[in-house]
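RETRY 2/3 - previous attempt timed out on the joint model. Re-submitting the same 335-residue input unchanged.
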Amino acid sequence: MIDTTILLVIVLMASVTYMTRIAGYLFLRNRTLSPRLTQVLEAAPGCVLISVIAPDFVSGRPADLIALAITVIAASRLPILPTVVIAVASAAILRQLLG
Amino acid sequence: MSDMTMPVADNRAEFFRGLRVSVPVLLGFIPFGLLLGSQAGMKGFSPLEIALMTGFNFAGGSEFLVIQLWTWPPAIPLLVALTMLVNSRHVLMGATLAPTMRHLPRRKVLPALALMCDECWALGLDDARKRGGVLSFPFYLGLSVGLYLSWPTSAAIGAVVGPSLGDVTRYGFHMAFPAVFLVMIFGMWTGFRAARPWFVSLVIGALTYLAVPGPWYVPAGALSGLLAAYLWARSE
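RETRY 2/3 succeeded.
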């Protein structure tokens, strides 16, 4: 069973993502991008991703804020799997301790 | 130069060379896929639905974002706009890969680009540079196919497991998502200077979240970061 709303979102996502994949090849291959545009494009994914998790930084729950700080440190030096384990474990333990 | 160069046996060897190179990266994909799938399952996605999303879209950052922001009914224009924004880096990647594909016809390149992800772009470009700037097409395909197949598969498995976990915040699983996003962000880290727009996004995003109900903190944070990147960029 496929929900039609989900299907619509999938089709729209897939279309815009495919456009981003072919646009550089089709339209920019014989052109040099301005350094300014290059820097904006390089910053874009990070800007979106950090905005999505911005609420976690102001959650107001001490247990979660400390766990988030631990997670930031872990993510800056470890691969995905140990980072997630540390994040989940510290959040669980700190919620037990601090509520 | 043209695509007549390599005989079939070489094509096969090149394809398998690509597949071999992709294995360590592929293993790294699996935990991301399982996590994405389990979170999608908790938001009400069936394994088939998340497999279709990851299979047709095949761009992890945007899929994590859509699942994270998913509500019923979903804010479709916002989700699609953010997908485009987070994947806008592909434009740059395609532009840098294009010179290595001059020997290939468009009918081969356009379907092959559907498989272009950060990892196969980086590995493919690196390999092309070692061979005089010419991309080995079967190598690129071998590289991409392994990565491509592992992604929807692991996400679907995650969606089977996910809903059985119950109230995830009790076990600290709510911290898994920020962890994944932070790993992705640090993966793009090239230095504090280049990261300054991200701090702008974080601050504006957080303030907007506190001040305005709804998902507006995402576009507000993202656009303010882009504006900061534009203003900070030295246009020499």
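Chain B touches chain A through 98 residues (CB under 8 Å). Closing ticket.
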